[in-house]
Amino acid sequence: MAIKVAFIGAGSVGFTRRLFRDILAVPELADTHFAMTDINRRNLDRVVRLCEKDLRTNRLPATISATLDRRRALAGAKYIINCTRIGGLEAFKLDVEIPLRYGVDQCVGDTLCAGGILYGQRNIPCILDFCKDIREVAAPDALFLNYANPNAMNTWAAIEFGRVRTVGLCHGVEGGWRQIYSALAHLHGDPPADADPRDWKKDCQILCAGINHQTWYIQIIYKGRKIGGKELLEAFERHPVYARTEKVRIDVLRRFGYYSTESNGHLSEYVPWYRKRPGEIRKWIDLSSWINGETGGYLRVCTEGRHWFETDFPSWLKAEDKPIGPDDRSTEHGSWIIEALETGRTYRGHFNVRNSGCIPNLPDDCIIEVPGYVDANGIAIPHVGDLPLACAATLSASVNVQRMSVHAAVRGDLTLLKQAMLHDPLVAAVCNPPEIWQMTDEMLVAEAAWLPQYRREIAAARKRLADAKRRGEYLGTRKWKGAARIHVKTVAEMRRSAAQSRRLAAAADKAAEQRAEDAKKGRKSAK
After folding, report:
1. Which contacts (CB < 8 Å, 24+ apart) does range 435-440 have?
2. What does the pLDDT read at residue 195?
3. 171 an active-site residue?
4. Which of 104, 112, 129, 140 has the CB geometry, 3.0–4.6 Å to 99, for a possible disulfide?
5. Percentage above 90 pLDDT, the chain
6. Lowest pLDDT segment from 76-90, 118-132, 250-264, 493-507
7. Are 374 and 177 in contact (CB under 8 A)?
8. Cα–Cα–Cα angle for 73, 76, 77, nearest 5°?
9. How many helices (H) and strands (E) are present in the chain, helices listed first?
10. DSSP 8-state symbol, 2
11. Can you give 222-255 as a three-state secondary structure string?
């Protein structure tokens, strides 16, 4: 009997279609019914038309329904995939630009720091609404697969307050894993990692654990030999690309002895050391790709990608796409989990789940990202053990911010929200307490449309801001675009490199562009 997979936020430019094609690459899932829902009819219709084209081209029996009625889409669904961006690019822009007035320079701002915290406040009321619908109308024991950031906060809210079986999914471990192989291969004169991941993963096994976007490769076995921190550091320092693009990650590796999963830009905003002094930020980043640390880099590429998709959609409908099948299947965990649960074929991946003693030196209630195994019996998470002390200490600071942020969002507790901001590593490194209190008020007022739980607080916050400005006590006075802001391309500018723009708009993976560039440069350096 065909299963039903529901997508919430199905109007995502590239992500929905990527996961849709991945699921259909499994022969046993070829008759899946996909129920797609979004609040934006035009984006939803466009993605559905592209997916229907995939079905016609590949002559598959799968079916698609599309609706703005979320409960209708969720009714009877066995798997629910969350691809939402609550507040869209309008709110995302506020997450980046308001903190800049107070000196907080973010590359991404969707997981931690000022932007990530407010993003969580927008997401969590929606997550709880999704969970209520899942409990009431989805299939019994339905599985909620959350791809939306801030991943740990969303997953935490869904499990603790939404009371729904939930797994958070991210591709960060895969990207860093590939980098580790590439760096070691370059050091030892082996072939670069530009082939099928199933090939190079045979030569490089990893044990990776931590929290989402701050996961640590605590054990690496390369061609049967354990790799220590010194050898890995040498490999990255000597790599022709990573020595330039991963300066923050390499510096953390140098001081901690362990490499962190997430990109240079992401990691730089989760810790207090690299983006607190405007004059030093460019020392730690690289502008060859947004993901290496550009100010507001992810906002820029999302904005450009959305504008290009709006313009170029007719070309997408006419384009010849790769056949759906194993050669086109991505390493995104979602389809592999569904395949394992439905067929019994074992899958090993890295999943965001509640700790519950898996990593003893992190709190039991937090959301960790660790190895897991899936088959017809379900999802099994092995005991990992303690993380190295410095790694655990860094994560503990983030976990405390996440916990306060989640509870603030659920309760509409403005004091707790400001205390979460106060304890955020980068915000605390840049701002003093009065600035943090006022910045939070300003973000709250600007994003009021997406923050229903704070409706009683917003009028008072608006008055506090007006009074501060009247008395000359307004603190967000920097007219600053950030240390490394890049111009957002117009559609006309993007048209000059249409193929590249199309890839950007379709990218489901934040690091896809960078991986392609790494592979290209790796091939050149190997010659």
Report:
1. 435/102, 435/475, 435/476, 436/102, 438/102, 438/464, 438/465, 438/468, 438/474, 438/475, 438/476, 439/98, 439/99, 439/101, 439/102, 439/104, 439/114, 439/475, 439/476, 440/414
2. 62
3. yes
4. 104
5. 87
6. 493-507
7. no
8. 65
9. 23, 12
10. -
11. ECCEECCHHHHHHHHHCCCCHHHHCHHHHHHHHH
How far is 351 from 339, CA to CA, in rounded Å? 15
Q: Choose the catalytic residue: 147, 181, 259, 270.
A: 270
Tell me how crowded residue 60 is: count the other CB atoms within 10 A of its CB: 15
Helix (H, G, I), strand (E, B) or coil at 259: coil
Q: How many whole angstroms from its chain centre is CA 41?
A: 24
Cα distances (Å, whole numbers) of residue 141 to 79, 137, 166, 365, 438: 9, 11, 10, 21, 43
> Residue 499: what pLDDT?
76
What is the distance of C-alpha 485 from the center of its chain? 21
* Chain mean pLDDT for the chain: 94
Distance between CA atoms of residues 177 and 179, nearest Å: 5
| Residue 307 among the catalytic residues | no
User: Is the model's pLDDT at 510 over the cut of 80?
Assistant: no
Q: Which residues contact 262 (CB under 8 A, 6 or more apart)?
A: 172, 176, 213, 214, 215, 270
381, 71, 52, 86: which is closest to 209 by C-alpha?
Answer: 381
- Decide: residue 478, CB within 10 A, 0-12 exposed, 13-18 middle, 19+ buried: middle
Whole-number Å distance between alpha carbons of 387 and 395: 10
8 Å CB contact between 406 and 380: no
Cα separation of 298 and 95, whole Å? 12
- What's the pLDDT band for 84 if we cut at 50, 70, 90? very high
pLDDT of residue 526: 38
CA 215 to chain centre: 13
Contacts for 39-47 with beta carbons within 8 Å, 24 or more apart?
39/68, 40/11, 41/68, 42/11, 43/11, 43/12, 43/13, 44/10, 44/11, 44/68, 46/11, 46/309, 46/313, 47/10, 47/11, 47/12, 47/13, 47/16, 47/17
| pLDDT band, very low/low/confident/very high, at 77 (cuts 50, 70, 90) | very high
pLDDT digits (tens, 9 = 90+) for 335-392: 999 999 999 999 999 999 999 999 999 999 999 999 999 999 999 999 999 999 999 9
Residue 296 has which token pair?
Answer: 């507001």
pLDDT tens digits, one per residue of 419-463: 999 999 999 999 999 999 999 999 999 999 999 999 999 999 999
Structure tokens at 359: 């990593």
The DSSP-derived string for 299-362 is HHHHHHHHHHHHHHHHHHHHSPPPPSSGGG----HHHHHHHHHHH---EEEEEEEE-TTSSTTS
Q: 297: helix, coil or strand?
A: helix
Q: What is the residue type of 248? A: V
Q: Which among 171, 213, 266, 307 is annotated as catalytic?
A: 171
Q: How far apart are CA 195 and CA 526, in angstroms?
A: 14
In whole angstroms, how far apart are CA 263 and each of 56, 184, 218, 270, 511? 37, 18, 17, 11, 8
